[in-house]
């Protein structure tokens, strides 16, 4: 066996080990949803249930509060993602292609939050939204996080590397900046938009501390992670039902990865090139 073949086999084995390690928690969670109340934490550990039972999945899907939290979080995540991409792409285009007074200083100001942990400004952010009267509204979950230094930086780097010739030709033909942005830059931003959009969607979907602080258990505004986080206190130790709910809550993000994986791969490769 040649050394090249040996390397290929070793790479395949390492990839398989990494894949199994990454998928094991998700697979266990999904299968635990088929187990009874006492089976999930049984000792010694048992991966598969004694009897496959759909009762947990039926019960959680028949829970109106769970379905409402799931739907509301999904709608909020979509709105947050679209607005975030729109705002940050506009800012990125301005910093990449326009010249204006104080551009360097404003760029430093916009990029500085990248180096500040979110938890460090959690209390001050809460005070601000409380004084603005935004508590217990959907707006408090969406508006505060729309501007993202990370997205601005990534998209700005992408726009800086786009050829100047297309923009100059459009200006000569009489196009204004808005037309250039919407007709030239946006259509070519699919790959970075998918990467940044998926990150925004995931950040909103998995948020727990901020929704817990700002909307908590407000009727009609409970987010899916808060619902699942409060599940044990409200429903007891029915782990099988909790695992079923967690599995269904993970499906939207998994489906998005499968649908947009080609763009995500391209976007990650672009990030490495910048």
* Architecture (CATH level 2) name of the domain at 64-229: Orthogonal Bundle
Number of helices: 14
The assigned structural class equals mainly alpha
Biggest pleated-sheet summary: none
Instruction: Assign the CATH superfamily of the domain at 64-229.
Output: MetI-like
Strand content: under 5%
Distance between the termini: 39 Å
CATH topology of the domain at 64-229: MetI-like fold
The total of beta strands comes to 0
Overview of the molecule:
It is a single chain. The chain has 274 residues and is mostly helical. It has a domain at 64-229: MetI-like fold (Orthogonal Bundle), CATH 1.10.3720.10. The chain is built from 14 helices and no strands. The protein has helices at 3-32, 55-61, 64-97, 103-111, 122-131, 139-142, 149-160, 164-172, 177-185, 190-205, 209-214, 224-229, 231-235, 239-273. Helix 3 (64-97) crosses helix 7 and helix 3 (64-97) packs across helix 10. The longest helix is centred in the C-terminal third of the chain and has 35 residues, at 239-273.
């Amino acid at each position: 066996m040649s050394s090249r073949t040996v390397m290929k086999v070793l790479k395949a084995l390492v990839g398989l080990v990494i894949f199994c390690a990454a998928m094991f928690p998700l697979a266990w969670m999904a299968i635990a949803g088929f187990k009874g109340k006492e089976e999930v934490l049984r000792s010694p550990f048992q991966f598969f249930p004694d009897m496959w039972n759909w009762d947990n999945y039926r019960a959680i899907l028949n829970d109106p509060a769970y379905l409402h939290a799931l739907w509301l979080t999904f709608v909020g995540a979509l709105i947050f993602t679209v607005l975030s991409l729109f705002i940050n792409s506009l800012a990125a285009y301005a910093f990449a292609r326009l010249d204006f007074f104080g551009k360097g200083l404003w760029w430093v100001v916009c990029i500085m939050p990248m180096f500040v942990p979110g938890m460090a400004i959690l209390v001050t952010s809460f005070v601000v939204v409380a004084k603005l009267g935004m508590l217990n509204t959907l707006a408090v979950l969406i508006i505060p996080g729309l501007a993202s230094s990370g997205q601005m930086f990534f998209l700005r780097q992408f726009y800086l590397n786009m050829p100047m010739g297309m923009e100059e030709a459009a200006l000569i033909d009489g196009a204004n900046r808005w037309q250039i942005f919407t007709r030239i830059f946006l259509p070519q931003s699919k790959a970075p938009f998918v990467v940044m959009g998926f990150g925004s969607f995931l950040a909103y979907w998995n948020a727990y501390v901020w929704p817990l602080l700002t909307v908590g258990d407000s009727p009609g505004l409970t987010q899916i992670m808060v619902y699942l986080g409060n599940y044990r206190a409200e429903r007891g130790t029915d782990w099988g039902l909790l695992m079923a709910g967690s599995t269904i809550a993970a499906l939207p993000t998994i489906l998005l990865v499968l649908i947009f994986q080609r763009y995500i791969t391209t976007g990650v490769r672009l990030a490495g090139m910048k």
